[in-house]
Amino acid sequence: MSLAKVCNRVDYFLEVFTSALMVGLVLDVTWQVVTRFFTDNPSSFTEELARFFLIWIAFLGAAHVFRKGAHLGLDYFVEKFSPDAQNKIVKTILVFVVIFSVCILLIGGSSLAYLAWDLDQSSASLGLPISIVYLAIPVSGVLFLLFSAESFKNYSNI
């Protein structure tokens, strides 16, 4: 299977999964509002769950928009250069993305998740291992590396 097909499948799963997380976030926050304003017993776990949903949505969503090319960029300035220079600029940016993904997301995120696992940290209301929440960081790092490899391959063919 080609890299493009793998990336397409991973990106499709990512889109479905983050959409499901968004639905879960909306339902969670709706339940929080309902219990806070219409009952005498506000829900205790909803704020924590919303925070965990938001963390996963942010990291996985960042990888998704990176693949789609919808992330923030300085396209206006890059478009002023020749096509050859644009190609070199994009490749340089991809190298920086790979360095960031490996150093910060993959190594740093894995260390953070492992530390939380090793210390047996769990969330206060839900009792979930905090390492599950922190796993969003290295998972997004792997996704950034995968999508960077695809982009680099695409720009090498130009």
UniProtKB/TrEMBL annotation:
Record's keyword terms, sorted: Cell inner membrane, Cell membrane, Membrane, Transmembrane, Transmembrane helix, Transport
UniProt cross-references to InterPro entries, sorted A to Z: DctQ, TRAP_DctQ
Domain Tripartite ATP-independent periplasmic transporters DctQ component positions: 26-152
Keyword hit for Cell inner membrane: yes
Protein family: Belongs to the TRAP transporter small permease family.
Function: Part of the tripartite ATP-independent periplasmic (TRAP) transport system.
Protein name: TRAP transporter small permease protein
Species, as recorded: Gilvimarinus japonicus
